[in-house]
Structure formats: C-alpha cells, structure tokens
Write a structure and sequence with these properties.
Length: 397
C-alpha cells in the first residue's frame, strides 16, 4: 500500500497569469493552509509545510496528517485554484530503490492493465523517462503478467522526478479549478435562504472572489430559524475558506414603509432596490466592487430584463448574476454538488415572499418606480437599516 508523506498540488489557470503569478500562488498557499481550519474538528496540525517547488506546491504532511490522508484529500477537493493533486511518497531518486518500492506498493492491488508514467523536471537524472517506464514496466510484467495499456490503464504508477527527489503516486485527484479565493478581491454576495444565491456565491468564489455575505431578515415577521439557515449555508460555502463576514440587515421597517405607501404590484422591485442600496453602503465600507445575486433570467416575475434594469439604476456598483443563463434544474444539480441543496430546501420564510401580491409587475418602468419612492424617506430608511445591522463571522477566526 502507498504510504503518502507529501501532496503535490497542481494549480489551474494561475500558471497563465504572467507577472501576477507569485500573487496567485501566495493566495492558493494561504487557502491550503486553511485546511487546518477545515480539519479543526480533529484539532491537530495536519500540514508541516507548504513549499513552492518548480511550478507546483508540495505539502509535507505532519505525523497527524499522515494518519488522515483521506480527510485532507476531501478538503483539497474544495480549494479553488487547484486543478489536481496527488498523495505521494517521497524518495531519493535512486532507481533500484524506487523499483522495489513500486513492486511493494502494487503487490496488493488487483488490476488488468497498467502503465508507468515517469516525468522528470530536472536534467541530472542519468536515464530517460522512457527507459524508466520500460524497466519498471518489465518488473511488473515479470511478476503479474498483465499487459500495458497506455490509453486506459487500470493501474497507473506515476513517478515525478524533481530536484528534491522522486514522488511516487497512483491517483490524480481532481480539484475544483478556478482561481484561489481572494485573488480577485472581495464582493458582496446577497444571500437569501433559497437555492439560488448559495450557488451564485460558489461561482463568485470559483473565480477568486472573497465573499462578504449580506442577508436581509424580517424579524418579527420571519423567524430566527430562517436566519440560522442562512448562517448554516454560509458555513457550508466557507467550510474550507477563511472566516467570512455575514451582515444581518433588519428589513421589516422598510417593508412596512413600502406596504403603507406603495402600490402592491411594485413591492418586489422596491424591496430589491432598497436591498441593493444597503448592499452598496456595505460594499463601500468593505472595499467591494460588485454585488452578486442568485437571479436567473425569467425564473420568477421579478427577474426580467426590464426589472433588473430598474433595480440596477438604484446603485452605481455593478450587480453580477452568475446564474443568469442557467435553468432551475442546472442550479439544483450544482446545489447538490456543492452540498447547499439540502439546507436550502428546508422550509423557511423569506422577507421577499412577505406581502407579495398575486400579480407583481414584470416590466417595471423607472419613472413609475421613482414616483412610488418619492413618497418614501429612502435615505433615512437606508441609514437606519445600516445602523441596526449586525455583523457576524461564518466560521471561527
Ligand atoms: P434564492 O433562491 O437565492 O432565494 P429566488 O429564486 O428566491 O432566489 P428572489 O427571491 O427573486 O429569487 O431573489 C433574487 C436574489 O435576490 C436572490 O438570489 C438573492 O441574491 C437576493 N435576495 C433575495 N432575498 C434576499 C434576502 N432576504 N437576503 C439577501 N438577499 C436576498
Ligand atoms: Mg428566495
């Protein structure tokens, strides 16, 4: 059996970033360190060091880490920026020693076809990788009498020769790709308790955004359980990232004001314009350059091009909608994959579903909305909501 002591991490697009490459590598390294946070339940230090070696990261596992390679692998599968990674044994580049080790670790594996994949990233090795493939392959054939399949091998024995020695592994695990969280800066993610916005948050993180979550609640019209659900979703999204801020904004007073003075069919648009105004204030405080939402075109009455236009006009900061072109089924599938689905579908009240008429406007006009708002003390309401906003963190610092 292979006894991993190291993990080789290959990153996705970071290699393409030219001069910024060092910056991206540093972000990825920081994110990998957060595995310690992810594994906090175990309360042990699993990683001894992370080093940048010849265009990849090499993690040295601590004694505790060596006992739980599967837990670490499962954490790495959620670290954005990783293309793939391998749990490896590290040995000196001594070919006869390596050959006997390959025979040892494969002795309890049953397979029908195999290949040896030697790669070298330094020039002092006295033989070619082709020669290594042939020699090691012969040794396996002699013992197991199984044929080589270069294209579809059941067993693939990898040997990477770096300046620091040889790394031996059998499996390449896929990471989530994308860019390291934080490498694209911060943005506000408007997080409801529903299915869509956590998926939008995932896509923001996937492209390197460090999210600042903002949630609007209507306590006392909505329950504390609804807010707890949002906390839970933020925790799932951040389980392998740094602790993130979650702003909880009281929204009931604004809804009451809208209820009193505006025509019912305009309510949703008015709610939404107030939400983005508040989000914009937080964006400025937090040095964010965008707001992410979980809207997709035509999914509900409020999510038309016209309505999105009218909502955008309330703020200067751009509103991003990563799910804009996705069908509900695709969003559900993604939510399952990122493990937010089961929490999202728990019954909850959302402030936006409160006091909604049967036929909300689907093609709002800016003039109509502005007329409705002229009866409201917009700035005062926004200031008051900001004043009463609570700040929490998604995971322990
Ligand atoms: P979701 O599944 O994310 O709740 P939805 O399909 O229910 O979305 P809407 O209720 O129209 O759609 O909300 C659209 C977007 O507005 C949400 O994806 C979210 O980004 C934001 N939003 C809605 N309600 C809230 C809230 N209470 N707090 C924070 N953001 C919200
Ligand atoms: Mg919703």
């Amino acid at each position: 059996m292979l006894d991993p002591t190291h993990i080789i991490v290959h990153y996705a697009e970071i290699g393409l970033k030219g001069k910024n490459r060092a910056y991206f590598e540093r972000k990825l390294k920081e994110n990998i360190k957060n595995i310690k946070i992810a594994l906090r339940r175990v309360r042990q230090n699993t990683l001894e060091s992370i080093k940048l070696v010849q265009g990849r990261l090499i993690i040295t596992l601590s004694e505790e880490g060596k006992n739980q390679p599967d837990a670490i692998a499962s954490a790495l599968k959620s670290i954005f920026g990783i293309a793939y990674f391998c749990l490896a044994e590290h040995h000196p580049a001594d070919l006869s020693l390596l050959r006997s080790r390959v025979l040892e670790i494969t002795s309890d594996i049953s397979y029908q076809t195999f290949r040896i994949t030697a790669r070298k990233s330094y020039s002092n090795l006295p033989v070619t990788t082709q020669k290594i493939n042939e020699d090691f392959g012969e040794a396996l054939i002699e013992r197991d009498h199984k044929p080589v399949s270069l294209k579809y091998p059941e067993l693939n024995v990898h040997l990477d020769f770096l300046t620091a020695g040889a790394y031996l592994y059998l499996v390449k695990h896929a990471g989530p790709g994308g860019l390291p969280v934080g490498s694209s800066g911060r943005a506000i993610v408007m997080l409801s308790g529903g299915l869509d916005s956590p998926v939008a948050a995932w896509y923001a993180q996937h492209r390197g955004i460090h999210p600042i979550y903002v949630h609007f609640h209507s306590i006392p019209y909505t329950s504390e359980a609804s807010t707890e659900k949002v906390r839970q979703l933020a925790r799932i999204l951040d389980k392998f990232q740094r602790p993130t801020k979650l702003y909880l904004v009281p929204f009931a007073t604004i809804q009451e004001a809208i209820l009193k003075s505006a025509e019912p069919r305009f309510r949703v648009i008015l709610y939404r314009r107030f939400m983005v105004r508040i989000a914009e204030v937080i964006a400025e405080q937090e040095n964010c350059w965008g707001i992410f939402t979980g809207e997709s075109l035509g999914q509900v009455a409020s999510q038309t091009m016209e309505n999105m236009y009218v909502v955008q006009q309330a703020v200067r900061v751009p509103i991003h909608r990563p799910l804009i072109g996705m069908d509900k089924q695709e969003i559900i599938k993604k939510a399952q994959e990122i493990e937010t689905h089961d929490t999202s579908i728990l019954a909850h009240e959302d402030c936006c579903t409160l006091f909604i008429p049967k036929h909300p406007v689907t093609k709002a006009r800016l003039v109509d909305i502005e007329r409705q708002e002229s009866a409201l003390k917009t700035q005062e309401l926004v200031d008051q909501a900001i004043k009463n906003t609570q700040l929490e963190y998604t995971t322990e610092k």
